[in-house]
Amino acid sequence: MSQTVFVTEGIGLCQRRGGSIKVIRPGDRVLFEADEEHWHGAAPDRLMVHLAINEADTDHDVVHWLTRTG
């Protein structure tokens, strides 16, 4: 009921709703709890390769895609 992101290459950014933007690098692991709104992706002018592991059960979908704002 969560998403775990493992960064394997490059430099990325992630942010939880209401939180600060964090830099993530190879070897970093970020755990997002079930239903926690967040985003993650490559830093500007960089690439990021990552493995995302999603867990789900009957009460929680695997992914809720959000729309970009701003």
Q: What's the count of strands?
A: 6
Q: What is the class in the CATH system?
A: Mainly Beta
Number of domains: 1
Biggest sheet: strands, sense, closure? 3 strands, antiparallel
CATH architecture: Sandwich
Q: How many alpha or pi helices?
A: 0
CATH superfamily: Jelly Rolls
CATH level 3 topology: Jelly Rolls
Structural class, from helix and strand content?
mainly beta
Strands of the widest sheet, in order across it, are 4-1-6
Mean of pLDDT: 88
Alpha carbon gap, first and last residue: 29 Å
Q: Which outline best applies?
A: globular
Rg over C-alpha atoms, rounded to the nearest angstrom = 12 Å
SSE string, helices as H and strands as E: EEEEEE
What is the helical fraction, as a range of percent?
Answer: under 10%
Uncertain regions: pLDDT < 50 for 5+ in a row? none
Strand content: over 45%
Q: Give the oligomeric state.
A: single chain
Keywords for this entry:
70 residues; mainly beta; Jelly Rolls; three-stranded antiparallel β-sheet; RmlC_Cupin_sf
Compile the SSE list and pairings.
Elements: E1 3-10, E2 12-16, E3 22-24, E4 29-32, E5 38-42, E6 48-54
Antiparallel strand pairs: 1-4, 1-6, 2-3, 2-5
How is this structure best summarized?
It comes from Streptomyces albidocamelliae. With 70 residues, the chain is mainly beta. It has strands spanning 3-10, 12-16, 22-24, 29-32, 38-42, 48-54.
